[in-house]
Amino acid sequence: MILPKKNMLLGLSILLLFLSPFFQLFTPVFGQVNLVEEEDLFRIYSGENYNIIIPKNKGPEISFEKTNFGELKLKFSYLSEYFSPSTYLSSMEHLTGKAYNLNYLLWEAFGVSEPTRAYVNMSRGALDHNASLTFSIVSLDTNKSINGYKITPLESTFLELTLTNWTFSAGTNGLAFRIVTFLEEPNYYERLGPFVDIENDQYVVQILGAQYIFELRFNQFLTILTDKQKEESYFSMFFVNYNIATKEHAPADFWVSIPSRGDIRKIILTFVCTIIPQQTASTNGFTMIAIIISLATMLYSKKWLNQRRKRGVRNE
Q: Counting beta carbons within 10 angstroms of the beta carbon of residue 42, is it exposed (0 to 12), middle (13 to 18) or buried (19 or more)?
């Protein structure tokens, strides 16, 4: 028996209504990450979680916009050599040698939107001795592991800063990158860290808002590529001018330093940014333990450096 067209449409509508929950349950959703290019910026829409804004004509600087959190700024603002009594940067007075304010360099940028990711690449060449910088921002809508980071789709943003062909000035100990992150006014926030996540061999910085936390993670061991195209892990250390265990309404403003080596061809720093709901009391307890360990490590390092200096004076 052939049903009238009207009854057929009614039957199909009822069937689709019945099956729709199953389609929602078993059908994967793609394309939730989307990039839009505007005149002076790129904008990445990460589902309904937050938007990422990348200016075209500034140094490596990005903004994260989220409802009930505000606009968070993350800046990679400065690059400088240093001469220090220790292997790593331990005072602002030790900054010397070649330096670049990354905000004042002219950058070339392009963005791409694909079915499961969106990314923006920025580059600046023609630095001293043909050195160059590249900065990449990647947002994914699929689970993935990159450089030891677990990337949560639509929640985590992967960043990579690469310095190529840097020639260290004579007498310098290493190179340091300045990183600053804060929540734009009028939103109140507090900074915490950097501190050490021993379980994952990572440094962690947090910006604490009323309902959400911005978390920046980066590996203690960054990656270098040598003249012989050999990839190696290379230990880095952070330096701050404030108490990392005290919550303050001020930007997280810190330096990441690495010692100089004559055979380094590339220096690759990677980061993961996540905006998460305010943590539970137990998680906060874990954070405080990590901060105590970080402080103990820094104090031990200073003690070791002082002993080393004293031995050096005796040997003279």
A: buried
